[in-house]
Specification:
Pfam families: DNA_repr_REX1B. The structure is a single chain. This protein has 200 residues and is mainly alpha-helical. It has one domain.
Length: 200
């Protein structure tokens, strides 16, 4: 039969998982702000310096906010692993962190591609004729880099492939996050059932 220390540890685990849930809710809020800010930015006229600066400020603020979220989760992960001896739960949080990092990375790539599309940044978007003389890269990052003025423009086929890959990779990251959160929900429910049995 579990002793009192076990119940105390279980209660602390539940509290840490609730704290983690709170961090995830913050991330959802930040992504909503990110999407809203991007839509305003993408819809603005080209060379709209005010909107460019507003979006740049938003990205800077959200970068800091996402970093704080990551640091808080790392702290929770460390306590679960080192203090409460729950490497299984620490591993789930680590998996979420990795997927969150990929989600943010692919969100930025996808936004760069959507911006290029919204502003008809590539020649073939404006003329209706596909430019087949573009560079041979097929990577999403290459198209995104061009959207920031770094590389020659891709062809229509390269752009469409990059957009499809970015969308697929983003969805894979979201699915990975959701799968890990579902596992954590089962753990939380089990801990709650144990607590109810103990108090009952």
């Amino acid at each position: 039969m579990p002793n009192e220390c076990d119940w105390v540890d279980a209660a602390e685990v539940r509290a840490l998982l609730q704290q983690f849930r709170s961090v995830q809710q913050q991330r959802v809020h930040y992504y909503a702000k990110f999407q809203e800010g991007f839509q305003t930015y993408a819809a603005a006229a080209q060379n709209d310096r005010e909107q460019d600066q507003a979006y740049s400020d938003l990205v800077s603020a959200l970068t800091t906010a996402f970093q704080h979220c990551s640091e808080e989760v790392i702290g929770i992960e460390t306590k679960l692993r080192d203090k409460l001896h729950r490497p299984d739960l620490a591993g789930l949080l680590r998996t979420v962190q990795e997927h969150e990092r990929e989600k943010l990375r692919m969100t930025v790539v996808q936004q760069a591609l959507k911006k290029a599309q919204a502003r008809q940044q590539f020649t073939w978007m404006r003329s209706g004729n596909e430019d087949l003389s573009g560079i041979g890269t097929e990577e999403a990052h290459a198209c995104a880099a061009h959207a920031h003025g770094v590389l020659p423009e891709p062809s229509r086929a390269e752009f469409e492939k990059a957009m499809a890959e970015a969308t697929q990779d983003l969805q894979a990251a979201v699915n990975g996050i959701n799968d890990s959160l579902e596992e954590l929900r089962y753990v939380e429910q089990d801990l709650q059932d144990q607590a109810d049995d103990h108090t009952g």
